[in-house]
Amino acid sequence: MREPLTTKLQNLPTSPGVYLYKDVQGRIIYVGKAKNLRNRVRTYFQSTLDPDSKTAALVERIADLDLIVTHNEVEALILEANLVRENKPRYNIHLKDDKHFPYIRVSVNEPFPRVTVVRRLAKDGARYFGPYTGIGGVHKTVQFLTRLFRIRTCDYVLPAPPGKQYKVCLDFHIGRCGGPCEGLQSEESYRQNVNALLMALAGRTKELIRVLGERMQKASDELRFEEARQLRDQIEALRAVSQKQSVDIGEFTDNDIIGLAREGTEAITVVMQFREGALIGRQEFALDTDKGDTDDAVVQTFLTQYYNHQPNLPEEIIVPTELPDLKLLEKWLKEAASTPVRLVAPKIGDGLRLVQLANKNARLVLDERLIHKKAMADRTSKMVLSLKDELGLARSPRTMVCFDISNTGETDSVGSAVYFDNGVPKKGEYRHFKIKGVAGQDDFKMMREVVGRYFYRRQEEKRPMPDLVVV
């Protein structure tokens, strides 16, 4: 064990916080949280560890340790989720393809709010809904609701600045906007439409239909028949959508049902969102896991990563397995939602039936993913075999690394390495090199430096060598 690491282990604090394990290159390979950092970190270095376990493999690669002390365990939980999302450490469970998922943003802080699709949450006074996994479905939802409630799609600053005048666009002439840009719709009337859209996005369809019905009756009594007709059309559209979504879930109201399916290192979690007794959405997420990870660890990690970026929390979250930190998670969710959020792992009854339904959905998604991967593997295997024949190799080059050099002038020179595993790009193995030891433009010497550095590091890390090198 390295001396700096030994010194740090001897001086660990007893505070709550987060610990970051690093390898010899200084890369973060694991992030964990602890109520007591001293007690938790030292458990990794006990002699009783199973030598074949994932933890033992992790410990072998630990060269350094960083600590971040927090005020309490809830802060540590949030920080851990953020650091895992940002760094994607090798030995943590984390969401695959963890790009920034889309959200629907409603700029309620503006006099005449707009609805947009964004990739990042911001503390800007707007209302956010999501995250969603299907961008196509998000755009269809936004299009349907903005047309239904006549929300503007323009980028105008409203009300118009002094001396500035706008003209209504085509949306006004075809009945998709009330024309607030020309003062043809009041801020109060427009705000009613926005509030209706917010209720629809939140899944409060039954309450919304009741409110719209009251407004329709009032408009009719006051002989505002055109407005009453528009409200009637909105009610009918919402009823049609809610009938398609309707699923009998007994006494449950606002719930998220979490489903899990696993096979080998593949894992899929599904979130089925029920609001007012209706299924309003299903999101699925793939996770990077290890065969040794338990189901409760996978579910708990998913919850911290998903709900850490979820602006609208339900009253209850139903999970498929008991969680070791259930009370801590409930405390964190309560702080995030400013209202209690229950976490339940049902054993019998309707709750169990819903979890089984979510698990079936997760299994369906996982099976589709595995079938697709097998089809891709069959196709790429043929490509690899063809490459073996074309190059006259003794065996198929299942792993391959390719190098290239790029020059911009005489001073800005870089190298790159791309890696293929069974014909499939493996982006985690891609490397970028800044040329350090070659002056001027000499591609041969630069290539020698890049290839040498690549294999020297691979040998240092005791990683397998590729079957084929292309320069």
Automatic annotation (TrEMBL):
GO function terms (MF aspect): excinuclease ABC activity
GO biological process, one term: nucleotide-excision repair
SMART domains cross-referenced by the UniProt entry: GIYc
InterPro entries named in the record: GIY-YIG_endonuc, GIY-YIG_endonuc_sf, GIY-YIG_UvrC_Cho, UVR_dom, UVR_dom_sf, UvrABC_protein_C, UvrC, UvrC_RNase_H_dom
Chain ranges of the GIY-YIG domain: 14-93
Key words of the record: Cytoplasm, DNA damage, DNA excision, DNA repair, Excision nuclease
Boundaries of every UvrC family homology region profile domain copy: 257-471
Gene3D superfamilies membership: GIY-YIG endonuclease, UVR domain, UvrC, RNAse H endonuclease domain
PROSITE patterns linked to this entry: GIY_YIG, UVR, UVRC
Span of domain UVR: 206-241
GO CC terms in record: excinuclease repair complex
Keyword Cytoplasm: yes
Family annotation (Pfam families): GIY-YIG, UVR, UvrC_RNaseH, UvrC_RNaseH_dom
The protein's name: Excinuclease ABC subunit C
Source organism of the structure: candidate division GN15 bacterium
Top-level taxonomy: Bacteria, candidate division GN15
